Amino acid sequence: MPGQKTFVSGDEAVAMGARLARPHVISAYPITPQTVVVERLSDYVEDGSLNAEFMHVESEHSAMSAAMGVSSVGARAFTATSSQGLLHMCEGLHYASGARFPIVMMNANRATAAPWNIYGDQRDSLSMLDCGWIQVYVEDAQEALDMIIQAYRIAEDPEVLTPFMVNLDGFVLTHTYELVEVPPQETVDAFLPPYQTVNKMDLANPQSLCITVGPNLNLEIKYQQHMAMVNAEKAIDAVDREFGDVFGRYYGGMVQGYRCEDAEVILAATGTTAGTARVVVDAMREQGHAVGLLKLRYLRPFPIRQVCDIAGRVKAVGVLDRDISFGLEGTIYTNVNSALSRLAQKPLTLNFVGGLGGRDISRENIESIFTTLLAAAGGVSQPEVQFFGMECATDE
Amino acid sequence: MNKTQAKSINARTIDDREFFYGHKACAGCGGSVAVRLALKVLGENTFSVLPANCMSAVGFIYPQMAFSSNAMIAPFPSTAAMLSGVAVGARALGIKGAYSIGFAGDGGTADIGLQALSGAIDRRDPIIYICYDNEAYMNTGIQKSGLTPYGATTTTTPAGKNLPGSVRPKKNMFEIVAAHGIDYAATCSIGYPQDYMKKIQKAAQVEGTAYIHVYASCPTGWGVPTERSVDVAKEAVDCGLWFLAEYENGRFRLNKNPREFKPVKDYLKKQGRFRHLSDRDIETIVQQRDAKWEKMRREWL
Amino acid sequence: MIEVRWHGRGGQGGFTVARLLGLSAALFEDKYSLAFPSFGPERRGAPVLGFTKIDTTPIRDRSAVRTCDYVVVLDETLVDANITAGLKPGGSILINTRTPERYSDVVNGFNMAHLDATGLALEILGRPITNTAMLGALIAETGVVSLESALKGIEVEMKPSLVEKNIVVVKTACERMKEVA
Amino acid sequence: MNRPEVQPYQKPFCIKELPLGSTFTGGHLVEKNAGWRTFRPIVDQDKCTGCLRCYLVCPDGVIFRSGDEMVIDYDFCKGCGVCAYECKARAIEMIKEEL
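Output (structure tokens, whole complex):
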């Protein structure tokens, strides 16, 4: 049964993905640019196309707390937020992962205040890398829809039982309309069975949840949680393969290399930026430059092996961060370097920070990044952390 | 949510099982009386949610689990939000005949948890929210909360040369909740356990959201000997500094309207937290009490 | 380095006296000391521990105290089979009791001293708060700090209304320990 | 019995045996609270009128009717004295814990 073609925005694709995943309860608080997700879901609940309860919570902190309550009785919870909202529910993020509640949440990547900015960058989700949530970054609306469905399969896997954050670039993806194939409900139902778990309150077998664990066993419990996230890679790859077999779309699991096999330099990027980078790679390849793109899909668990296998061989690796961890460098750069440091011979690496607060990342920006990388590979020394696309001098 | 049989609830008809047992609360803890009795009234089919407070801190210390019916700790601001999620999740799963009940303290209700409680009432989620009020943040060592009464010394409102302890009156939680147009709200005291049990049962039969505000003494925080714990909660009502009332169908009702009160001074002087009060402070407290009762009698009778 | 372990119940002032000892050594005897409770919620009635470490050089080690030179028991109902666990050879145990013979076996060979601290506290303070009485007993038995430093510590640390009586308690405790010795 | 009882407890030997995340069985007791008290309540069954006020207000739920007697679970009584204080018939006395 082929899917039904639609022309929708990233937000709408997420709402459709959520509807297909049959959540029991949606608890969400509106925030730009996520609002269309919750508006569509409200329509679906009202028109009966989604048999779910919609909780009008009074804040994002309560959105996550309610979602945890839902999961604690074994029901499937869905929520969505962005930037300030994500930060407001930070306590709940750590809480849910520690309680092993497989909640799925869409996060519209958006700059964090102050100063106020409603446009896209990844400061919000990247500042939450340590909160114990699986994090995937999608490139287009189709991948957004598909990953909401895959997210439940992975998160609810008894070996994983870890909450899952699906990240979409604010506006550039959430509010951009494109062709999306919506898979049929029956196929999705076969792919994504109802949520079954022992990690819940049960009238027949009363449990205590979110208990206190002191120095006697806390270290071991957190090791258990860490290993579940590390081993989630198996489920991620398996679900990606099965999804491809069933729905015809393979995404490559943890990462997706594009023309990296014979590349001299590689640029690592996430989300919609990877899309633009693909176009620049093709163009520069025609001009005879051996450049490649490493699309990082998952940032937690982090694809250490894949980054080493694909990017370890080249002379120079660039990492594009729509983020800056003040006082050091881009957060993705820190993670990629940590992975590459496992290699006996670490390639030269450069960090390209830009696209903050909705600043467009143009093809020219990426082309000049590749040119810089090629020069660095040729021995021209370069500053390790470079802000690109600045519209005023930095008078350093 | 089906209704418990409407048999009148008392010491003989109450469930003889203990659902909150072997906990690590201080000897004489009033809060544990409130939790224990409520769970016995409601029976085994419950989902309890407690935020960070004494009762959760003493009830879930791995491997000693004192709750033998389903129970869960919520983030501090989230009692009513998480509890709503439980109730709505259970409804979505078609789980019948189970009560979703929250136990938060005074600060957990009137301060950090107020927003979530307001949201739950607004949504009319099918929950029973119990605030056990020991008039300060006791779990963290007796700091002032929004329900700390005027004149009480706490570690953050120390009575000294310049201040008589807390200088603000208790927030009026009962009427704040009622102002939401909640289906049922009541005030109780562990000193009047029969009245408390009856109101818990009534809350369980409510179609919609119910709120119970129960006065629950804290020997440690109030500076009373452990054996007097329940009696001091009773005396609070008898001297008029607390009251037993209900809000239902949009109307208030006073359950107990004593002709004359026991002396406030006796009630206060028994407690370490009030021992410093001057006669003038006590006079202020008596005036505040009389003003409150004058209003209640005028409007609620 | 001298290490003292105090056994009390929540609300009996076990940690207050552990801190008082450390303060006296640090402020009045040019020593370095650490004082800390057994971390975690202190529930009224629940058994709790307090620790004092005193040394002539700054104390860097922050790991849990495994051994100690002296064990001080403020409430004899806390005495159980492993009350002397961690006590160093030659160390002593002090128990607030009127019937020390009852504990001759459980102190398994360690030097034991005792004081009816409850009686003394009721006599002078009118309340069974035994912490400063047992501090007096410890000083008399071990000289861990001088009586004078301990009294100065009380003056600095305690509320004015409590200072005078507690000074009498500590002094009397010392005298009564000397009489028995 | 209508109250949870202390069960033997073995610290998990390996990660697989750990509780899953932050979830554990309800009503799982591994230790008593008897060590908390310095006084214990004794009921004079003759004076007791069976009003059950002590049963209602006991913070730990350790005093209850069994047959026609009031029984106390001394494993979990903390000796707070509420029962004795609240007993109108003066049928409960707090006596010093024998050592």
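The interface with chain C takes residues 24-28, 57-58, 139, 219-220, 226 of chain B (CB under 8 Å).
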